[in-house]
Amino acid sequence: MTSQPRKVLPASRRAVLGSALTGAALASLPSVARAEESAGGAAPAAEAVRAQPWKLSNRMSGSGDWADFLRRQDLVWSRLPALWHEGPFLGDGLLGSMVYQEPDANKIRFTVQHGRVQDHRPAFGSGWGTCRLPVGHLTLDPVGTITAVDWRLSLWNAELSGTVTTSSGTLTLTAFIHDEILVARVRASGGERVSWTFHPEEAMSPRQIQEDPPANYVPNPAWTTRTTGGVKQVLQPLVGGGQTATAYRQTGDVLLLSVGHSFPSESEAATVSLRKIQRAEAYGTLRDRNTRWWHDFYRKSFVSLPDERLQSFYWIQLYKVASATRANAPVMATCGPWLERTPWPAVWWNLNLQLEYWLIHGSNHLELDSLSATLRQNQEQLTANVPAAYRSDSAGVGRSSDMFANRSVGTPGSGAEVGDLTWALHNVWLSYRHTMDETLLRETLFPLLRRAINYYLHFLTPGSDGKLHLPSTLSPEYPVVPPQDTNYDLALIRWGCQTLLDASAHLGVNDPLKPRWQEVLTRLTPYPTDENGFMIGADTPYAQSHRHYSHLLMVYPLYLVNWDQPENRELIEKSLVHWHALTGAHRGYSYTGAASLYAMAGRGDTALGYLKLFFDPTTRYPCRANTHYTEAGPVIETPLSASQSMHDMLCQSWGGTVRVFPAVPKDWKDVTLHDFRTQGAFLVSAVRKAGVTRFIRVKSLAGEPLKLKHGLTGTLTVLLDDGKPARTQDLGNGTLAITVPKGREVLVHSGARPDLVIAPVAISEPGDAWGLP
Q1: pLDDT of residue 481
Q2: What is the CATH number of domain 32-60+667-758?
Q3: What are phi and psi of 645, to 5 degrees?
Q4: Per-domain residue ranges for the chain?
Q5: Is the full-model pTM beyond 0.85?
């Protein structure tokens, strides 16, 4: 391959911890108490506004308001789904079920899968030895031939309800999952009857759809069954130790089912699953507890768009991610808790996992952060993943692993993919920045990031140019010989060193490695570039279609090179254009990634255009009928990342600045945000009408300095919640520094005070419901 001319880009000096350094800088700015301030930086108005306390009017405060709104986002079915990516799905972060027709049969399948059920033989790798394992499925077996269905998946209540019409009568069903119990009530009329059958599935890796088991692989033994006091159980022992146990009971028209998994205990799962069913509360009590959880969940934030189908999609993704994980659950596998035939029955750390969790931050759902919890709980395993010579100060994880992050990582110089733990820790940093939780910073992010960066530091060597260089590593899934100075790793090293410096300053830690981190920032070789933009690595251009954007991490999501730097705009632009100009390998997240990258540049229409490619049925891998996504198997991260693309159009908070409505498409004339969480632990509420921002309210949860890029014109009013003027400083370019004490709120608007109302917006682009309407 002919080498391409190489240009150098200076390393960014932006402090990426955010407010740790930015806050100190802002504190030194002159600040004057003002009631009004010109958006263009002119002198304040002469007359002060008399203090008048204000308060938002939230028309989404009542249960009836939420029920009405979310009903319009529900998935519906008027015909029987034939495939998993057409049907309803249920989950509670651990137990999961998808509902569709039993293949080649007059039955309805309810899959039964669980996020903790995996094999425990690491010698065979994550694809076979520590992979997710199938559990089984239920079938609802009608007497007559199924002729029609009328189903609704209620987001508000997180339950499936409706009817199944057969040639013999009708089955009326309701189903939900709560506290690791699948609850189904089915009532029969006419000549129908209620009949359930549980079908255990072979405890073997779903990867068998594409390859044979490894040499010396011993299949797990067959399951056994038993009945205890009316509760039936299927017991699955495992060769590597541990057990999976499924318990179920039908009483009248109600079926209860639960799955337990234990390791290394070979009997605990049976006890746990049996007790779940024996001690289960009455149907009505279980249903009430389930709906209370979900009603509280949805109320934590609110987003309304004028595009009916995209608005519905957004709310379905919130339902999906809360069905797939909770903070006390395992980290999400690539398929979530809904295991189907797939070559990817594990956790993938080189893009999939990172994208899965981005939407939890803006949507104000940190209670779903099982990634941070997984890394905190498995620090010893992450240390054991690196070669023994480096375990005293390093940590890492291979491309794919089980829920315990058990996968060794190779060394730089061998062409290994070594940056995945560092990228995963960027997600932890996002959780820290959105909460300002110092415990998370001190106990999880700082110690693990220190180890992840240390692993790199062992291999950085000076070249003849005096710069530090990295030997060959793999840019995730780019199919060429791994180059030196891979942009994927250079971006992560820069981000990691700067974050460690900022974190140690914030925590008051006089770390002996601080001089080394600073040296790396000063001497690390610039990002390799050529006439087409960012390369894959040194002497390796981006020369063939690539679904990942790993060579662009310094632009998104790290923002080390960003649109606020005019000197880098041309480089960003041509890198983006060239990435998508080479077609053939793009996948759904290639489009959602491009949408977010263009949103950073404020190009809302272009961002929306790329996002809609993900929904275009003529593309090779579009979003499916139930909003799930599949390539060779279920891949949960892509639709979840599409929600983050919408977040990036509506509100961004990178680089220490909160940007409200930075990339709203021209067709989205009306938009409502409420309690959208940003970095710095702010809750943003904002309303846009007729293409104009009417007001912005920011609540400070941590007392961090606020820099607000507001997008307003004319004379501004900036008031605290008691009606008194806030202390502000015009930073230029439509950005204000505003002092907002912890627990207080500030209102920003121009002109006369608008109606401070949070409510759904009118639909200007109607669309069909998701499902099979």
Answers
A1: 86
A2: 2.60.40.1180
A3: -60, -40
A4: 32-60+667-758, 75-298
A5: yes
